[in-house]
Here is the input.
Amino acid sequence: MVAIETSKLFHNLAPEELRGLVGMVETRHYPAEATVFRAGDPGDGLYLIGEGTVQIAAAVTAEQMKVLTRLGPGDFFGEMAVLDHEPRSATVRAETEVTAFFVPRAAFWQMMERSPGLATSMVREFSLRMRDFNRHYLQEVLQAERLSVVGCFARSIVHDFKNPLAIISFASEMAAAQASTPDERQIAHGRIHRQVNRLSNMINELLEFTRGSQTANVLALTDYGTFVQQTLEEIRPEIAEKSIGLSCENPPPAVALLLDPHRLIHVFLNLIHNAVDAMPNGGKITLRFLVGDREIATEIEDTGPGIAPEVAARLFEPFATHGKTHGTGLGLSICKRIIEDHRGRLHTRTEPGRGAIFSFALPRPS
Ligand code: ADP
Here is the structure.
Protein backbone atom coordinates (compact mmCIF):
# COMPACT_ATOMS: atom_id res chain seq x y z
CA MET A 1 0.00 0.00 0.00
CA VAL A 2 1.35 3.44 -0.99
CA ALA A 3 1.03 5.92 1.87
CA ILE A 4 -0.40 9.37 1.14
CA GLU A 5 2.74 11.05 2.52
CA THR A 6 4.92 9.44 -0.17
CA SER A 7 2.77 10.64 -3.09
CA LYS A 8 4.70 12.66 -5.73
CA LEU A 9 1.97 15.26 -5.49
CA PHE A 10 2.45 15.89 -1.77
CA HIS A 11 6.16 15.34 -1.23
CA ASN A 12 6.83 19.13 -1.20
CA LEU A 13 4.50 19.74 1.75
CA ALA A 14 5.97 20.75 5.11
CA PRO A 15 5.58 18.04 7.87
CA GLU A 16 2.81 19.95 9.68
CA GLU A 17 0.92 20.50 6.39
CA LEU A 18 1.24 16.79 5.64
CA ARG A 19 -0.16 15.94 9.07
CA GLY A 20 -3.06 18.31 8.42
CA LEU A 21 -3.66 16.67 5.04
CA VAL A 22 -3.69 13.14 6.48
CA GLY A 23 -6.29 14.34 8.97
CA MET A 24 -8.59 15.60 6.19
CA VAL A 25 -8.28 12.58 3.93
CA GLU A 26 -10.98 9.96 3.79
CA THR A 27 -9.96 6.39 2.93
CA ARG A 28 -12.34 4.70 0.47
CA HIS A 29 -12.53 1.07 -0.67
CA TYR A 30 -13.92 -0.13 -3.98
CA PRO A 31 -14.46 -3.73 -5.02
CA ALA A 32 -13.29 -4.74 -8.52
CA GLU A 33 -15.64 -3.39 -11.26
CA ALA A 34 -17.10 -0.70 -8.97
CA THR A 35 -17.53 2.80 -10.41
CA VAL A 36 -15.63 5.49 -8.52
CA PHE A 37 -17.38 8.32 -10.36
CA ARG A 38 -19.04 8.92 -13.72
CA ALA A 39 -18.65 11.65 -16.34
CA GLY A 40 -20.99 14.48 -15.40
CA ASP A 41 -20.75 13.88 -11.62
CA PRO A 42 -19.71 16.93 -9.55
CA GLY A 43 -15.95 17.35 -9.09
CA ASP A 44 -16.05 17.05 -5.29
CA GLY A 45 -12.47 15.98 -4.66
CA LEU A 46 -9.23 14.37 -5.78
CA TYR A 47 -8.26 10.70 -5.39
CA LEU A 48 -4.92 9.14 -4.70
CA ILE A 49 -4.52 5.41 -5.27
CA GLY A 50 -3.09 3.50 -2.31
CA GLU A 51 -3.68 0.03 -3.72
CA GLY A 52 -5.13 -1.53 -6.90
CA THR A 53 -5.69 -0.15 -10.40
CA VAL A 54 -8.40 1.96 -12.00
CA GLN A 55 -9.48 2.60 -15.60
CA ILE A 56 -10.23 6.12 -16.82
CA ALA A 57 -12.72 5.96 -19.70
CA ALA A 58 -14.61 8.49 -21.81
CA ALA A 59 -17.69 8.10 -24.00
CA VAL A 60 -16.84 8.05 -27.72
CA THR A 61 -20.45 7.57 -28.84
CA ALA A 62 -23.71 7.17 -26.88
CA GLU A 63 -23.02 3.43 -26.45
CA GLN A 64 -19.25 3.15 -26.68
CA MET A 65 -16.70 3.93 -23.98
CA LYS A 66 -13.00 4.19 -24.68
CA VAL A 67 -10.41 3.49 -22.01
CA LEU A 68 -8.05 6.48 -22.01
CA THR A 69 -5.59 5.24 -19.43
CA ARG A 70 -4.99 2.91 -16.46
CA LEU A 71 -3.57 4.16 -13.17
CA GLY A 72 -2.01 2.30 -10.26
CA PRO A 73 -0.67 2.80 -6.71
CA GLY A 74 0.80 6.28 -6.12
CA ASP A 75 -1.11 7.82 -9.07
CA PHE A 76 -3.83 10.40 -8.58
CA PHE A 77 -7.01 11.17 -10.57
CA GLY A 78 -10.02 13.46 -10.50
CA GLU A 79 -7.82 16.58 -10.32
CA MET A 80 -9.26 18.34 -13.39
CA ALA A 81 -12.77 18.88 -12.07
CA VAL A 82 -11.30 19.98 -8.74
CA LEU A 83 -9.15 22.59 -10.47
CA ASP A 84 -11.65 23.98 -12.98
CA HIS A 85 -14.88 23.56 -10.98
CA GLU A 86 -16.50 21.72 -13.90
CA PRO A 87 -18.27 18.33 -13.66
CA ARG A 88 -16.22 15.14 -14.19
CA SER A 89 -15.18 14.68 -17.83
CA ALA A 90 -14.50 10.93 -17.61
CA THR A 91 -15.69 7.82 -15.82
CA VAL A 92 -13.39 5.96 -13.41
CA ARG A 93 -13.87 2.29 -12.66
CA ALA A 94 -11.93 0.03 -10.29
CA GLU A 95 -10.18 -2.64 -12.32
CA THR A 96 -9.17 -4.60 -9.24
CA GLU A 97 -10.01 -4.07 -5.62
CA VAL A 98 -8.93 -0.48 -4.89
CA THR A 99 -8.07 1.52 -1.80
CA ALA A 100 -8.02 5.26 -2.51
CA PHE A 101 -7.48 8.39 -0.44
CA PHE A 102 -10.10 11.03 -1.13
CA VAL A 103 -9.08 14.67 -0.63
CA PRO A 104 -12.21 16.91 -0.60
CA ARG A 105 -12.08 19.87 -2.97
CA ALA A 106 -12.27 22.58 -0.27
CA ALA A 107 -9.41 21.00 1.70
CA PHE A 108 -7.31 20.66 -1.41
CA TRP A 109 -7.80 24.34 -2.36
CA GLN A 110 -6.95 25.46 1.17
CA MET A 111 -3.68 23.57 0.95
CA MET A 112 -2.92 24.89 -2.52
CA GLU A 113 -3.31 28.43 -1.22
CA ARG A 114 -1.08 27.76 1.77
CA SER A 115 1.61 25.71 0.10
CA PRO A 116 3.35 26.99 -3.05
CA GLY A 117 5.16 23.60 -3.17
CA LEU A 118 1.88 21.78 -3.68
CA ALA A 119 0.84 24.19 -6.45
CA THR A 120 4.19 23.64 -8.20
CA SER A 121 3.91 19.86 -7.92
CA MET A 122 0.37 20.03 -9.19
CA VAL A 123 1.33 22.08 -12.27
CA ARG A 124 4.29 19.78 -13.02
CA GLU A 125 2.25 16.58 -12.70
CA PHE A 126 -0.55 18.09 -14.70
CA SER A 127 1.80 19.11 -17.50
CA LEU A 128 3.45 15.64 -17.56
CA ARG A 129 0.04 14.08 -17.81
CA MET A 130 -0.97 16.39 -20.69
CA ARG A 131 2.24 15.59 -22.56
CA ASP A 132 1.58 11.91 -22.13
CA PHE A 133 -1.97 12.35 -23.32
CA ASN A 134 -0.79 14.32 -26.39
CA ARG A 135 1.68 11.58 -27.29
CA HIS A 136 -1.02 8.97 -26.94
CA TYR A 137 -3.51 11.05 -28.92
CA LEU A 138 -1.02 11.66 -31.74
CA GLN A 139 -0.40 7.91 -32.04
CA GLU A 140 -4.14 7.32 -32.26
CA VAL A 141 -4.60 10.00 -34.92
CA LEU A 142 -1.77 8.53 -36.99
CA GLN A 143 -3.23 5.07 -36.64
CA ALA A 144 -6.71 6.33 -37.63
CA GLU A 145 -5.19 8.08 -40.65
CA ARG A 146 -3.42 4.88 -41.70
CA LEU A 147 -6.65 2.92 -41.35
CA SER A 148 -8.57 5.46 -43.38
CA VAL A 149 -5.96 5.27 -46.19
CA VAL A 150 -6.27 1.48 -46.08
CA GLY A 151 -10.07 1.86 -46.25
CA CYS A 152 -9.87 4.16 -49.28
CA PHE A 153 -7.36 1.82 -50.84
CA ALA A 154 -9.62 -1.19 -50.32
CA ARG A 155 -12.48 0.68 -52.01
CA SER A 156 -10.23 1.49 -54.95
CA ILE A 157 -9.25 -2.17 -55.31
CA VAL A 158 -12.91 -3.10 -55.50
CA HIS A 159 -13.47 -0.33 -58.07
CA ASP A 160 -10.55 -1.45 -60.25
CA PHE A 161 -11.60 -5.09 -60.04
CA LYS A 162 -15.12 -4.32 -61.17
CA ASN A 163 -14.16 -3.52 -64.79
CA PRO A 164 -12.41 -6.81 -65.63
CA LEU A 165 -15.09 -8.72 -63.74
CA ALA A 166 -17.78 -7.00 -65.83
CA ILE A 167 -15.96 -8.02 -69.04
CA ILE A 168 -15.57 -11.62 -67.79
CA SER A 169 -19.25 -11.79 -66.90
CA PHE A 170 -20.25 -10.46 -70.33
CA ALA A 171 -17.89 -12.86 -72.15
CA SER A 172 -19.01 -15.88 -70.13
CA GLU A 173 -22.64 -15.15 -71.06
CA MET A 174 -21.58 -14.99 -74.69
CA ALA A 175 -19.71 -18.29 -74.36
CA ALA A 176 -22.69 -20.00 -72.74
CA ALA A 177 -25.37 -18.67 -75.10
CA GLN A 178 -26.90 -21.43 -77.23
CA ALA A 179 -26.92 -19.18 -80.29
CA SER A 180 -23.15 -18.47 -80.08
CA THR A 181 -21.02 -19.78 -82.93
CA PRO A 182 -17.69 -21.57 -82.27
CA ASP A 183 -15.90 -18.40 -83.38
CA GLU A 184 -17.80 -16.29 -80.89
CA ARG A 185 -17.02 -18.82 -78.15
CA GLN A 186 -13.34 -18.58 -79.06
CA ILE A 187 -13.47 -14.77 -78.86
CA ALA A 188 -15.19 -15.00 -75.44
CA HIS A 189 -12.56 -17.45 -74.23
CA GLY A 190 -9.80 -15.07 -75.34
CA ARG A 191 -11.45 -12.15 -73.54
CA ILE A 192 -11.85 -14.08 -70.30
CA HIS A 193 -8.26 -15.23 -70.51
CA ARG A 194 -6.97 -11.66 -71.02
CA GLN A 195 -9.08 -10.30 -68.14
CA VAL A 196 -7.92 -13.02 -65.76
CA ASN A 197 -4.36 -12.04 -66.67
CA ARG A 198 -5.22 -8.41 -66.04
CA LEU A 199 -6.64 -9.19 -62.63
CA SER A 200 -3.58 -11.16 -61.72
CA ASN A 201 -1.34 -8.29 -62.88
CA MET A 202 -3.35 -5.87 -60.79
CA ILE A 203 -2.99 -8.09 -57.74
CA ASN A 204 0.75 -8.19 -58.29
CA GLU A 205 0.85 -4.42 -58.66
CA LEU A 206 -1.16 -3.96 -55.46
CA LEU A 207 1.08 -6.33 -53.57
CA GLU A 208 4.09 -4.36 -54.74
CA PHE A 209 2.41 -1.12 -53.71
CA THR A 210 1.51 -2.35 -50.23
CA ARG A 211 5.03 -3.63 -49.76
CA GLY A 212 6.10 -0.05 -50.38
CA SER A 213 8.54 -0.94 -53.13
CA GLN A 214 8.27 0.35 -56.68
CA THR A 215 6.58 -1.90 -59.19
CA ALA A 216 9.20 -3.07 -61.64
CA ASN A 217 8.53 -1.09 -64.80
CA VAL A 218 9.22 -3.41 -67.72
CA LEU A 219 9.39 -1.23 -70.80
CA ALA A 220 9.68 -3.14 -74.06
CA LEU A 221 9.51 -1.91 -77.66
CA THR A 222 5.86 -2.43 -78.60
CA ASP A 223 3.81 -1.40 -81.61
CA TYR A 224 1.58 1.37 -80.23
CA GLY A 225 -1.07 1.04 -82.98
CA THR A 226 -1.63 -2.68 -82.31
CA PHE A 227 -1.64 -2.13 -78.55
CA VAL A 228 -4.31 0.59 -78.78
CA GLN A 229 -6.48 -1.43 -81.21
CA GLN A 230 -6.40 -4.48 -78.90
CA THR A 231 -7.18 -2.38 -75.85
CA LEU A 232 -10.16 -0.73 -77.55
CA GLU A 233 -11.46 -4.12 -78.73
CA GLU A 234 -11.48 -5.32 -75.14
CA ILE A 235 -13.45 -2.40 -73.89
CA ARG A 236 -15.85 -1.92 -76.83
CA PRO A 237 -18.54 -4.51 -75.94
CA GLU A 238 -18.99 -3.09 -72.45
CA ILE A 239 -19.20 0.51 -73.75
CA ALA A 240 -21.69 -0.37 -76.49
CA GLU A 241 -24.09 -1.64 -73.81
CA LYS A 242 -24.23 1.88 -72.34
CA SER A 243 -25.18 3.71 -75.57
CA ILE A 244 -21.78 5.31 -75.79
CA GLY A 245 -19.91 5.52 -79.05
CA LEU A 246 -16.14 4.92 -79.05
CA SER A 247 -14.21 5.96 -82.13
CA CYS A 248 -10.79 7.11 -83.31
CA GLU A 249 -10.53 10.37 -85.27
CA ASN A 250 -7.39 9.00 -86.93
CA PRO A 251 -5.84 5.52 -86.67
CA PRO A 252 -3.44 4.91 -83.78
CA PRO A 253 0.06 5.25 -85.27
CA ALA A 254 2.00 2.06 -85.96
CA VAL A 255 5.09 3.34 -84.14
CA ALA A 256 7.27 1.27 -81.80
CA LEU A 257 7.32 2.82 -78.33
CA LEU A 258 8.88 1.67 -75.07
CA LEU A 259 5.83 0.44 -73.17
CA ASP A 260 4.70 -1.74 -70.33
CA PRO A 261 1.39 -2.80 -71.91
CA HIS A 262 0.08 -4.41 -68.68
CA ARG A 263 0.30 -1.07 -66.92
CA LEU A 264 -0.52 1.29 -69.80
CA ILE A 265 -3.82 -0.47 -70.39
CA HIS A 266 -4.98 0.88 -66.98
CA VAL A 267 -4.61 4.42 -68.29
CA PHE A 268 -6.93 3.74 -71.24
CA LEU A 269 -9.40 1.85 -69.09
CA ASN A 270 -9.46 4.45 -66.32
CA LEU A 271 -9.82 7.42 -68.67
CA ILE A 272 -12.51 5.71 -70.74
CA HIS A 273 -14.42 4.51 -67.67
CA ASN A 274 -14.30 8.02 -66.20
CA ALA A 275 -15.73 9.37 -69.47
CA VAL A 276 -18.47 6.71 -69.34
CA ASP A 277 -19.27 7.68 -65.74
CA ALA A 278 -19.56 11.34 -66.81
CA MET A 279 -22.17 10.47 -69.47
CA PRO A 280 -24.91 8.46 -67.74
CA ASN A 281 -27.34 9.23 -70.58
CA GLY A 282 -24.96 8.21 -73.35
CA GLY A 283 -22.60 10.21 -75.52
CA LYS A 284 -19.40 9.89 -77.53
CA ILE A 285 -15.77 9.17 -76.71
CA THR A 286 -13.27 10.19 -79.34
CA LEU A 287 -9.60 9.29 -79.43
CA ARG A 288 -7.08 11.16 -81.55
CA PHE A 289 -3.36 10.71 -81.99
CA LEU A 290 -0.83 13.45 -82.64
CA VAL A 291 2.45 12.20 -84.00
CA GLY A 292 5.45 14.39 -83.24
CA ASP A 293 9.18 13.84 -83.81
CA ARG A 294 9.82 13.27 -80.13
CA GLU A 295 6.56 12.00 -78.78
CA ILE A 296 3.16 10.58 -79.57
CA ALA A 297 0.25 12.35 -77.90
CA THR A 298 -3.04 10.57 -77.32
CA GLU A 299 -6.19 12.55 -76.58
CA ILE A 300 -9.36 11.10 -75.12
CA GLU A 301 -12.33 13.44 -75.34
CA ASP A 302 -15.91 12.91 -74.26
CA THR A 303 -19.18 14.78 -74.74
CA GLY A 304 -19.96 14.93 -70.98
CA PRO A 305 -20.21 18.07 -68.82
CA GLY A 306 -16.41 18.49 -68.42
CA ILE A 307 -14.39 18.56 -65.20
CA ALA A 308 -16.25 20.07 -62.22
CA PRO A 309 -14.46 23.18 -60.86
CA GLU A 310 -14.67 21.68 -57.32
CA VAL A 311 -12.11 19.00 -58.22
CA ALA A 312 -10.20 20.59 -61.11
CA ALA A 313 -7.22 21.84 -59.07
CA ARG A 314 -6.68 18.49 -57.30
CA LEU A 315 -7.57 16.17 -60.17
CA PHE A 316 -4.39 14.09 -60.12
CA GLU A 317 -4.04 13.93 -56.33
CA PRO A 318 -4.89 10.63 -54.62
CA PHE A 319 -8.43 10.53 -53.17
CA ALA A 320 -9.65 13.62 -55.09
CA THR A 321 -13.13 12.66 -56.23
CA HIS A 322 -16.29 14.60 -57.00
CA GLY A 323 -19.84 13.81 -58.06
CA LYS A 324 -19.60 10.02 -57.82
CA THR A 325 -21.17 7.83 -55.19
CA HIS A 326 -18.47 5.17 -55.44
CA GLY A 327 -15.49 7.30 -56.51
CA THR A 328 -12.23 6.71 -54.68
CA GLY A 329 -10.27 9.42 -56.43
CA LEU A 330 -7.34 7.10 -57.07
CA GLY A 331 -7.85 6.45 -60.79
CA LEU A 332 -6.23 9.60 -62.19
CA SER A 333 -3.36 9.61 -59.68
CA ILE A 334 -2.55 6.03 -60.72
CA CYS A 335 -2.78 7.02 -64.42
CA LYS A 336 -0.38 9.90 -63.80
CA ARG A 337 2.12 7.63 -62.08
CA ILE A 338 1.94 5.06 -64.89
CA ILE A 339 2.46 7.72 -67.57
CA GLU A 340 5.35 9.24 -65.62
CA ASP A 341 6.89 5.76 -65.27
CA HIS A 342 6.84 5.76 -69.10
CA ARG A 343 8.66 9.13 -68.96
CA GLY A 344 5.57 10.82 -70.34
CA ARG A 345 3.12 13.53 -69.22
CA LEU A 346 -0.59 13.39 -68.49
CA HIS A 347 -2.76 16.47 -68.35
CA THR A 348 -6.24 17.72 -69.01
CA ARG A 349 -7.51 20.76 -70.83
CA THR A 350 -10.90 22.36 -71.06
CA GLU A 351 -12.45 24.17 -73.97
CA PRO A 352 -15.78 25.96 -73.80
CA GLY A 353 -18.65 23.86 -75.11
CA ARG A 354 -16.60 20.64 -75.02
CA GLY A 355 -16.49 17.80 -72.50
CA ALA A 356 -13.38 16.62 -70.69
CA ILE A 357 -10.21 16.20 -72.74
CA PHE A 358 -7.40 14.10 -71.25
CA SER A 359 -4.13 13.99 -73.08
CA PHE A 360 -0.96 12.02 -72.49
CA ALA A 361 2.29 12.13 -74.39
CA LEU A 362 4.67 9.16 -74.62
CA PRO A 363 8.26 9.70 -75.76
CA ARG A 364 9.50 8.07 -78.97
CA PRO A 365 12.69 6.11 -78.45
CA SER A 366 15.70 8.02 -79.75
P1 ADP B 1 -12.81 8.57 -59.24
O1 ADP B 1 -13.26 8.27 -60.63
O2 ADP B 1 -12.71 7.36 -58.37
O3 ADP B 1 -13.58 9.67 -58.58
P2 ADP B 1 -10.47 9.66 -60.54
O4 ADP B 1 -9.12 10.04 -60.00
O5 ADP B 1 -10.47 8.72 -61.69
O6 ADP B 1 -11.30 9.10 -59.32
O7 ADP B 1 -11.24 10.99 -60.98
C1 ADP B 1 -11.33 12.09 -60.09
C2 ADP B 1 -12.50 12.98 -60.42
O8 ADP B 1 -12.27 13.64 -61.68
C3 ADP B 1 -13.82 12.26 -60.63
O9 ADP B 1 -14.47 12.02 -59.39
C4 ADP B 1 -14.60 13.26 -61.51
O10 ADP B 1 -15.21 14.26 -60.72
C5 ADP B 1 -13.49 13.92 -62.32
N1 ADP B 1 -13.43 13.36 -63.70
C6 ADP B 1 -12.55 12.45 -64.16
N2 ADP B 1 -12.76 12.17 -65.46
C7 ADP B 1 -13.81 12.93 -65.85
C8 ADP B 1 -14.53 13.13 -67.08
N3 ADP B 1 -14.19 12.46 -68.19
N4 ADP B 1 -15.54 14.02 -67.09
C9 ADP B 1 -15.88 14.71 -65.98
N5 ADP B 1 -15.24 14.59 -64.78
C10 ADP B 1 -14.23 13.71 -64.71
Q: What stands out?
A: Residues 5 and 143 are 40 Å apart (CA to CA). Residues 270, 274-275, 278, 302, 304, 307-308, 311, 315, 320-324, 327-332, 356 surround adenosine-5'-diphosphate (CB under 6 Å). The domain at 4-143 is CATH 2.60.120.10 (Jelly Rolls). The longest strand covers residues 283-291.
